[in-house]
Design a protein that fits this description.
The chain has 14 helices and 4 strands. The chain has about 450 residues and is mostly helical. It folds into 2 domains: about 90 residues, no CATH class; about 260 residues, no CATH class. The longest helix is centred in the C-terminal third of the chain and has 32 residues. The chain is globular and about 65 Å long.
C-alpha cells in the first residue's frame, strides 16, 4: 500500500510499499521463492546459504593471504616449525576469527556442536594450508599456526553465538539498518574494501587517496536511499555517519595520510547530504529507484578502479609483459603486495554485486545475470590487466585476470543470495506497526 506523508515528497515510498511490490515479483522466480525450503523457517534456509557463500569467500581470502603466489614444487627437505613470535601468533588467531563467525552463521548445528565444529573446521583448514606450504620453497609450515588458527575460529564462533543467540532479525532491526533494501548490501560491502585500502596505505600512503572516490560512492548510495525511501534520519546525521565510516575504516592509515582521509570524510558527508536533499527529477510513479541510484554512483566507483590501477603503476613501469601464472616469488609477495591484490579482488567482488543488482528485479534467475556480469567484468579486468602489464617487476598475469573475474561472478551470486534472504526475513517479520527509522 502506498503511503504519501508529505505532498512535496510524494515520490518517497514506505517499506511496506516496497516489500509488497517486491514479494509478488520474486515469488514468480523459481530460484528466489523461499517457500521451497524443506525444514525450518525459509529465512533460516536462505540465511544458511548466504552464510555458506560468505564462509567460502573468506576461505578463499585466507588461501590468498597464506599461499600466494601458488608456486608449488617437491621440497628438498621438509620444513616444519614448532615455535613462533607473539606477533605471528596473534595475527594467526585474528585471521581465523571471521571464519569462526561465518561457520557459526552458516551451520544449523546446536550451540555446542557449532562451536566445536568451528574449532574442528579451523584446525582442518589450517592443516590443509600448512600441508600445502610444505611444497612452497620459500615458506615454512608451523604446528603453532594450526593451534592459533583453530583458537581464532573457536573465538569467532563463541563471540558470534553470544552476540546473536538471543536475537532474531525483527522489523525494528531491518528498518533501522535498511536491510529490506538489497541496495544497502552494496554499501555494507564497501566497508571491507575501505579497510583493505587502509592496510595498504600504512606502507604506501598514496593509496589513501582511494578513500575519496570510495567516500563519494558510498555517500551517493546512502544519500540515494534516503532520498527515495521515507526516513526520519536527517541528512546531516546520515552524512556524519558516512564521514565516520570513512575515518574508522581508514583508521590504520590515519597517521600516514591524514589529509587524504580528512578530504575523504568531507566528501562522504557532503555527497550524502547533497544527494539526500536534492530536488526530485524522476517521475512520481517510479518506485524502482535502484537503477537511478546505481547510475549516479557508478562514475565514482569507476574513478576508484582507474585510480587503483594507476597507483599500482606508481612503483615504476617497464616494457609490457604477460605471464600465465602469478608473477614473482613467495618472497616478493610480501604483506603489502598481498593486500594490494586483495583490494583488487574485493573491488571486483563489489563490481559483480553492483552489475547483478542493476537488473536484479528483471532477471529472475542467477543464470540470466551471469552473461551480463561476465561481459562487463571481463572488459574491466582486461583493461586493468593490460595497464598492469607495464608494472615493473610484475607485468600482466592471466592467473590474476581469471581470479578477479571469478571474484566478480561470486559477487553477483552473493547479491542473489542476499536478495533471497532479505525477502524471506521480510516475509516472516512483517508487522502492522510502523517501522522505526531513527537509527
Amino acid at each position: 500500500m502506498l503511503r504519501v506523508r508529505n505532498p512535496g515528497h510524494s515520490h518517497r515510498w514506505s517499506v511496506e510499499s516496497l516489500l509488497s511490490d517486491t514479494l509478488p515479483l520474486v515469488s514468480d522466480a523459481g530460484d528466489l521463492d523461499p517457500t521451497d525450503a524443506v525444514g525450518g523457517l525459509p529465512s533460516e534456509r536462505s540465511g544458511t546459504r548466504l552464510g555458506i557463500a560468505a564462509l567460502l569467500y573468506m576461505v578463499g581470502v585466507t588461501l590468498i593471504i597464506t599461499l600466494l603466489p601458488f608456486q608449488f614444487s617437491w621440497p628438498d627437505q621438509w620444513r616444519v616449525m614448532t615455535t613462533g613470535n607473539a606477533i605471528d601468533v596473534a595475527a594467526n588467531v585474528l585471521l581465523f576469527v571471521p571464519l569462526g563467525v561465518l561457520f557459526r552463521i552458516a551451520t544449523g548445528l546446536s550451540r555446542r556442536h557449532a562451536v566445536m565444529g568451528a574449532l574442528a573446521a579451523g584446525v582442518l583448514v589450517s592443516m590443509v594450508i600448512e600441508a600445502l606450504q610444505l611444497f612452497e620453497a620459500e615458506r615454512y609450515s608451523s604446528v603453532l599456526d594450526v593451534a592459533a588458527n583453530g583458537l581464532g575460529a573457536l573465538i569467532g564462533a563463541i563471540v558470534c553465538d553470544r552476540a546473536f543467540r538471543r536475537q532474531r532479525p525483527d522489523v525494528t532491526v531491518i528498518g533501522r539498518l535498511f536491510l529490506e533494501l538489497p541496495l544497502m548490501g552494496l554499501l555494507y560491502l564497501t566497508f571491507p574494501l575501505i579497510w583493505l585500502t587502509a592496510l595498504v596505505s600504512v606502507a604506501a600512503p598514496q593509496w589513501a587517496w582511494l578513500s575519496i572516490p570510495l567516500a563519494a560512492f558510498g555517500g551517493s548510495l546512502l544519500g540515494g536511499v534516503l532520498h527515495h525511501v521515507r526516513s526520519a534520519v536527517p541528512p546531516q546525521r546520515a552524512g556524519a555517519f558516512a564521514a565516520a565510516a570513512i575515518v574508522i575504516g581508514m583508521l590504520p592509515a590515519l597517521s600516514r595520510a591524514p589529509l587524504a582521509i580528512a578530504i575523504g570524510a568531507s566528501v562522504a558527508f557532503l555527497t550524502t547530504r547533497l544527494v539526500a536533499t536534492r530536488q526530485e527529477r524522476s517521475p512520481m510513479w517510479n518506485r524502482r529507484f535502484e537503477v537511478p541510484v546505481l547510475r549516479a554512483s557508478a562514475p565514482f566507483y569507476a574513478m576508484f578502479l582507474v585510480l587503483m590501477v594507476a597507483l599500482s603503476l606508481a612503483d615504476g613501469v617497464a616494457p609490457w609483459s604477460l605471464g600465465a601464472g602469478f608473477p614473482g616469488t613467495a618472497q616478493s609477495w610480501d604483506k603489502v603486495e598481498i593486500l594490494r591484490f586483495l583490494v583488487r579482488v574485493a573491488a571486483f567482488t563489489l563490481l559483480g554485486y553492483m552489475i547483478a543488482e542493476y537488473r536484479g528485479r528483471e532477471e529472475q534467475r542467477l543464470a540470466n545475470a551471469v552473461p551480463r556480469v561476465l561481459r562487463w567484468t571481463v572488459a574491466a579486468a582486461t583493461a586493468a590487466e593490460i595497464a598492469l602489464g607495464y608494472r615493473a617487476g610484475r607485468g600482466a598475469s592471466v592467473a590474476q585476470w581469471g581470479f578477479v573475474i571469478s571474484a566478480a561472478l561470486y559477487g553477483g551470486w552473493l547479491y542473489r543470495l542476499q536478495l533471497e534472504h532479505v525477502i524471506a526475513v521480510s516475509r516472516e517479520t512483517r508487522d502492522p506497526r510502523p517501522i522505526p527509522r531513527d537509527l
